[in-house]
Amino acid sequence: MHARAQDLLKLGELPELAPPPGVWERVLEGVGARAAARRVRRRVAIAASVIVAAAAVPLAHVLTRPAPPPTFTLVRLVPDRVPWGETSYAPLIVESARLEKVLAEMPAPPPLVAGATAGAIVGLEDRIAYVDAQLSYAAARDLAPPYRKALWGERVELMNALVQVRFAQTQGF
Amino acid sequence: MPNPPLPVPTEIVARARSGDRAAHAEIYAALGGPVFTLARRMLASKALAEDVLQETFVEVICNIERFRGEADIGTWIKRIAINKCLMHVRSSWVSRRAPEMDEPVGEHRSGLVDDQMALERALDRVPDVARAVVWLHDVEGYTHAEIGRLMGRTTSFSKSQLARAHERLRELLEGPQPQNETSLCTPELKTC
């Protein structure tokens, strides 16, 4: 039996799909992880303010002397990792996004970069791109959540390493 | 204009805005299905649709205190989901997926369920952007101008994508059209 063009009009009559089981639990985990990340960011901001304020008083006494090399006050720029449970990879996605944001907010690198540092950064970025390609394949092929969880875990590890290297770079190493 | 809003009692919305987790769960129970359906139809990937469903409700719960009630909450949530779907549609790896097969999907159909399954399979084989456009236009009720704005493109772009989607669906459901019936303009479907 051949369909008629009217079939095209029946898109709206396709049955509603039930949400897959377990998504609501992952939503709650994601909300919890985001709240935890927000708390960490708040603590980092407070700590940074305290450090800046504490450094301001002694600085006022040495203004007449040649300025020493700037001591970076973003000691806690790289916050503690957010703990996550074992049941899904939702918190890993949140953590990965948070690390992307931390990277984006870092100061621009100095114009002259040590070769070893530049090599490390490029290597990490290549590995992240490779994991991203695997994640894309996993999503396109509906691969099992444990596989995707492992990939997201690897991505977070690599992002953490990249943040550490970039942080060291801003410190002049 | 988009579809009529999905009903969620205002009392539940008010409780949700004050952080009541049970109210959040009630909203998910009412709208999780429609949002997952929307994402699954627009993206043609169960895994991606699942991710969009999850990301949408994380976003909803984290930002519900900012929801002022000017629109229906169902419309607000669906808009968030649509934006997330379109982010996936725009992402480069989606557009690099292997081209789908050309065989008709409507062979041996004998009833409503078979027709719907064939239509679902056909929809999965429509190119990503065209599929998103046909769903937004034919089911969600968005105008071409609205779709163009959502996708950062023109009204004409939406119209051409819709015509492309209808043509592809017709090919997949009926097989290739005779030469004199392959016009992109199908008045009964309001594509022109």
Chain-wise SSE layout:
The complex is a heterodimer of chains A (173) and B (192).
Chain A: H1 23-61, H2 90-105, H3 115-140, H4 145-170
Chain B: H1 10-17, H2 21-43, H3 46-63, H4 73-90, H5 92-95, H6 112-124, H7 128-138, H8 144-150, H9 155-174
Please give a quick description of this structure.
The complex is a heterodimer of chains A (173) and B (192). Chain A is mostly helical and 173 residues long. Chain A has helices at residues 23-61, 90-105, 115-140, 145-170.
Textual characterization of the structure:
The complex is a heterodimer of chains A (173) and B (192). Helix content of chain A is 62%, strand content 0%. With 173 residues, chain A is mostly helical. In chain A, helix 1 (23-61) packs parallel to helix 2, helix 2 (90-105) runs parallel beside helix 4 and helix 3 runs antiparallel to helix 4 (145-170). The longest helix of chain A is centred in the N-terminal third of the chain and has 39 residues, at 23-61. The N and C termini of chain A lie far apart (72 Å). Mean pLDDT of chain A is 73; it is low at 70-86. The mean pLDDT of chain B is 82. Chain B folds into two domains: 1-96, RNA polymerase sigma factor, region 2, helix turn helix motif (Rna Polymerase Sigma Factor, Chain: A), CATH 1.10.1740.10; 98-192, Arc Repressor Mutant, subunit A, CATH 1.10.10. Chain B has helices at 10-17, 21-43, 46-63, 73-90, 92-95, 112-124, 128-138, 144-150, 155-174. In chain B, 64% of the residues lie in helices and 0% in strands. With 192 residues, chain B is an all-alpha fold. The chains are: A mainly alpha (173), B mainly alpha (192). Chain A binds chain B through residues 1-20, 23-24, 26-28, 30-31, 34-35, 90, 93-94, 132-133, 136, 138-140, 142-143, 148, and chain B through 21, 25, 28, 32-37, 40-41, 45-48, 50-51, 53-55, 57-58, 61-62, 93, 97, 106, 109-110, 115-116, 118-120, 123, 134-135, 138-139, 166, 169-170, 173-175, 186, 188-189.
